[in-house]
Specification:
Order of helices and strands: HHHHHHHHHHHHHHHHHHH
Number of strands: 0
Number of helices: 19
Shape: elongated
Strand content: under 5%
Radius of gyration: 30 Å
Helix content: over 70%
Largest sheet: none
Length: 347
Amino acid sequence: MASVAFISINIVPETVESWMGHLDILDNLDRGLEGLQILENGLKVSPNNQELVIELTNLCFGYEKVSPLRSAFKIINDALEKEPDDIGIIMNKASLLYHLNKKDEALEQLEKAKSLQDPNDEMYARILVLMSIIYNERGNIEKAIEINRKVIISFPDHYPSNLQMRKLLKFLDLKNAIQFLESAIEHFPKEIKFIKDIADLYFKHRNYKKVDFYVEKALALNPKLKTKLKMLAYKIMIEIDVNQDMDIAINLMKMTEMKDFPEVVVFPYVNMAINSIIKEQEYEEGLKFYEISTFLLSKFKIKNKIDLNEFLDNFKKLKAWGQSKKDQALINRIDKVTQTIKKITEN
């Protein structure tokens, strides 16, 4: 099989397909490093082929070799002198300059390519994305976002620009971040990373209904995500307003099919409630954990597995603390928990 590839490269020396086939064979034979010479030879024939430069840079970084990048740069530079307006050659020069850490010079080449390229062509998007990457790495975040946003508006299906915007998400305000992710999900509906991003974002801003929606969407695409998404359910249980969001958290736990559900969720909250009150310094946390615990205990009726006497004894301290505050809203919350605890002990 290897001989077929070597024959192919000799018979058809000017086709990218034969070069790539040769690289695959070398890789399968654990001789990938030899591919560097193949790619250099390919660039001498097709200096405007960007696929060859991409493969070359990948191999160079994989084998920690820099000198082939410099050799390739000389080949590209010589070619550009003969064809100064060939956008493919200009892009290859920009790419090599970028990988050789000459980013200012890379930007100059990209500006040149941009001035020559039809803005409706996908090559224009490639030019802008590399510019955005360089501006981001140089710390000019606003410029990076501005450029990348232009690409996404003009080319919403351009995958690399959407990936680049993911890296810039933390610099966007909530509205723009959500807007970008919703657009990305619309154009790449099977791309889990965008769905996970938006679920995480909504979680940070406590919109648990949206988290629930996108987790369900992610699980429909990839059921294997259940294990990873369990942590979201746990996180939400800690963050929730028990009166508003508990059903959402429970639904998330059901969707992620916790085998030990609900005991694994109830016990920690009961213990946290008790421990907070024992410390006599963390009554506010204790109240929150009591609210969650009593809700879960009443919902799943597993009181026989829990020492309710200790639970109730410590609750008395919590109630006394609430009464000492003379805060009616606080007292109302505690009274509500009291009623729930009574129902648990009576049933």
